[in-house]
Design a protein that fits this description.
The complex is a heterodimer of chains A (565) and B (163). By secondary structure, chain A is an alpha/beta fold. In chain A, 39% of the residues lie in helices and 16% in strands. Chain B has two domains: 79 residues, ACT domain (Alpha-Beta Plaits, 2-Layer Sandwich), CATH 3.30.70; 73 residues, ACT-like. Chain A, domain 2 (Alpha-Beta Plaits, 2-Layer Sandwich), CATH 3.30.70.1150. The chains are: A alpha/beta (565), B alpha+beta (163).
Chain lengths: 565, 163
């Protein structure tokens, strides 16, 4: 048997685990790995900042459902990944992160470019490894993929010292991997008795709401969710992590709930008699003041992670299991019950709320600036929901939830849990690498886009036809909105002078254009979305526009503010 | 709020203690004590952690601990018949006059006089929490200079003659 270097073993393991692209940046401590990549045939995307690499691996994972892989050097390379790892961790995104580390004998010596990366990333990874012996390397990589991609998914980091990458051994592929403290398959099926109980409660409820989160997307359960909702005819709402898992253009959809959800949706959640949580986690952006949340409802919660059940909201029927499998069983049981649920009065009530509090905005007057919501409506019309949209964080992110019609899962790619500004562009690059034939739009704000603007160079390098659309209000809009509403209009450092984005785009080798007139939006966007080049479209928007409704911080979800009047 | 003794079986690897400690700190759980050592299986260690908290918090602590890959199993011993002990060493100021009194306290409680200095006596006691509390109260008037405790360790009981 021929001997292989640790770095070659790593690359071989990545290939065998099904990796088709690695996002990374070279440096001293990962040079042996880069040397092994050079003629390995494994595709590598050179980023411009390691944070970009982490977000790209994350965007790739969200778009494809596969494990994303990124690579950085020791010290600053690794610490630059931290925000990206935390972003993936909060949204349970499967990712394997490889970092170079200083030589084993230098660890703990404050060596050049040394950082305790396992220590730093411990609370933001599902697990991490420092490889101390090259004989452990192959098994460690296999374990990393297993842990990242199963159970409640998440990022796993493998820290590899230079001498381990350089050491030579005979390569043995570990066929069987077993970790005695990790048995995710134990929880997959869901408890039969609990499933039967849930089925009975759902058909017997008078005022149910089905509330779906990112777990359903991770479990690839769109077909099952759709069948369940259509079977019983219950109102269904999603968090921003699950937009499109049930088509929003269907009558059963109540669209998104929570802090910026539609008013009628939050009323339905607050006054229902059964709240059926499928793969969501009763996040504080959904519950508002938790003591007053949906007080009269019985609660059912399906989640793969036992720790996510009963964490913030007490649950009557907990079901630990994989959403896809549990919902499939649930459907069978409901069919077997052969009962006709009767939600008629409930729908009458919901329609009344809908009529009274529709989700809308006041269109621009003639000659006035572009309304940001209008941009989303135009995009929705032009794409018909057929595109992958990544976002940054702030007002634009919420308007995208509200004014674009989401009809397919894995099409809205956003940092929901951590709320990471600067996520959008690198995530778009990752998504486009994973789905080369799809239209990928990065929706951004003038604040967020600057945070990882350097990745335009990566997008141009890779000839990716990504369309970045900036809702530019020359402000940190969401901060400004909160200052306006909750801080006596004291606009402390929320005004931000944006660069000329069209010119910046050209500097990076992309194409750029500025749109100022509402009537120009549709014709220009229509042309650009069909173009095969990387574009930055700067839409100059009304700076006083706010995201409504809003549940003020610390308030109950039926205490929404609907508008400024 | 009641004390809960959680017994955690973990992989005997470097960094595991840091993982458990970091989880406890990061989720703002309060712990009274943590004791760790090798078990009958050299690849596993047992941690005995004493928490202060209500049922919901303890349930959440157990679930979060189980989420760690290096945690093999957890058990709330407070829910079962169990045996728990702690070792304590107390250094007490003594004068020629009070020395015999402190020695007498030690004898009464079956504590060991572990070290004898010119102006101090160090007592060592293995016992349950009630016994340790008694010792501390009895020696307090003499002047306690230093205390060190191991934290509790615990095991489930197998009742003799049981099923």
């Amino acid at each position: 048997m021929t001997k292989m270097k640790g770095a070659q073993i790593l690359v071989e393991c990545l290939k065998r685990e099904g990796t088709d692209v690695v996002f990374g940046y070279p440096g001293g401590a990962n040079l042996p790995i880069y040397d092994a990549l050079y003629d390995s045939g494994l595709k590598h995307v050179l980023v411009r900042h390691e944070q970009g690499a982490a977000h790209m691996a994350d965007g790739y994972a969200r778009a494809t459902g596969k494990v994303g892989v990124c690579l950085a050097t020791s010290g600053p390379g690794a610490t630059n990944l931290v925000t990206g790892i935390a972003t993936a961790f909060m949204d349970s995104i499967p990712m394997v992160v490889i970092t170079g580390q200083v030589r084993s004998y230098l660890i703990g010596n404050d060596a050049f470019q040394e950082a305790d990366v396992c220590g730093i990333t411990r609370p933001i990874t599902k697990h991490n490894f420092l490889v101390k012996n090259v004989n452990d390397l192959a098994r460690t990589i296999r374990e990393a993929f297993l842990i990242a991609g199963t159970g409640k998914p998440g990022p796993v980091l493998v820290d590899i010292p230079v001498d381990i990458s350089q050491a030579e051994i005979e390569f043995v592929w570990p066929e069987k991997i077993e970790i005695r403290g990790y048995k995710p398959q134990r929880f997959v099926e869901g408890h039969r008795g609990q499933i039967d109980k849930a089925a009975k409660m759902l058909v017997e409820a008078k005022k149910p709401v089905i509330y779906i989160g990112g777990g359903a997307v991770l479990s690839e359960a769109a077909a099952e969710i759709r069948e369940l909702v259509d079977l019983v005819g219950a109102p269904v709402t999603t968090t921003c992590m699950a937009l499109g898992i049930y088509p929003e253009d269907k009558p059963y959809s109540l669209r998104m709930l929570g802090m910026h959800g539609a008013a009628y949706t939050n009323y339905a959640v607050q006054y229902c008699d059964l709240l059926f949580n499928i793969g969501a986690r009763f996040d504080d952006r959904v519950t508002g003041k938790v003591e007053t949340f949906s007080p009269k409802s019985k609660k059912i919660h399906i989640d793969i992670d036992p720790a996510s059940i009963g964490k913030s909201v007490a649950v009557d029927v907990p079901i630990v299991g994989d959403v896809k499998k549990v919902v499939r069983e649930l459907i069978k049981e409901i069919k077997a019950l052969n009962a006709k649920p009767d939600y008629k009065d409930w729908w009458v009530q919901i329609e009344e709320w809908k009529k009274k509090h529709p989700l809308n905005y006041v269109p621009s007057r003639k000659g006035a600036k572009i309304k940001p919501q209008h941009v989303l409506e135009v995009l929705s019309e032009l794409t018909g929901g057929d595109c992958l949209m990544t976002t940054d964080v702030g007002q634009h992110q919420m308007w995208a939830c509200q004014f674009y019609r989401w009809t397919q899962p894995r099409t809205y790619i956003t940092s929901g849990g951590l709320g990471t500004m600067g996520y959008g562009l690198p995530a778009a690059i990752g998504a486009q690498m994973g789905k080369p034939k799809e239209l990928v739009i990065c929706l951004s704000g003038d604040g967020s886009f600057v945070m990882n603007i350097q990745e335009l160079a990566t997008a141009v390098d890779q000839k990716l036809p990504i369309k970045t659309i900036i809702l530019n209000n020359a402000n940190l809009g969401m901060v400004r909105q909160w200052q306006d509403m909750f801080y006596n209009k004291r606009f402390s450092y929320s005004g931000i002078r944006p660069p000329d984005f069209a010119k910046v785009a050209e500097g990076f080798g992309a194409k750029g254009i500025t749109i100022t007139k509402p009537e120009d939006l549709k014709p220009i966007l229509e042309k650009i979305l069909k173009d095969e080049f990387c574009w930055v479209v700067d839409c100059i928007c009304d700076e006083d526009e706010k995201v409504f409704p809003i549940i003020p911080p610390g308030k109950a979800i039926d205490e929404m503010i609907m508008d400024m009047a | 709020m009641a004390k809960h003794i959680i017994s955690v079986l973990v992989e005997n690897k470097f960094g595991v203690l840091a993982r458990v400690a970091s989880l406890i700190a990061g989720r703002a759980f309060n712990i009274d004590s943590l004791a760790v050592g090798e078990t009958e299986d050299p690849t596993a260690s047992r941690m005995t952690i004493v928490f202060d908290g209500d049922e919901k918090t303890i349930e959440q602590i157990k679930k979060q601990l189980n989420r760690l890959i290096d945690v093999i199993s957890t058990q709330d011993l407070t829910k079962e018949e169990h045996l728990d002990r702690e070792l304590i060493m107390v250094k007490i100021s003594v004068s020629p006059k009070t020395r015999p009194e402190v020695v007498e306290i030690a004898e009464t409680l079956k504590a060991e006089v572990a070290d004898v200095g010119v102006k101090t006596l160090t007592l060592l006691l293995v016992g349950d929490q009630a016994k340790i509390k008694t010792l501390l109260e009895l020696v307090k008037p003499y002047g306690v200079k230093e205390i060190v405790r191991t934290g509790r360790i615990a095991l489930t009981r197998d009742i003799a003659g049981g099923v």
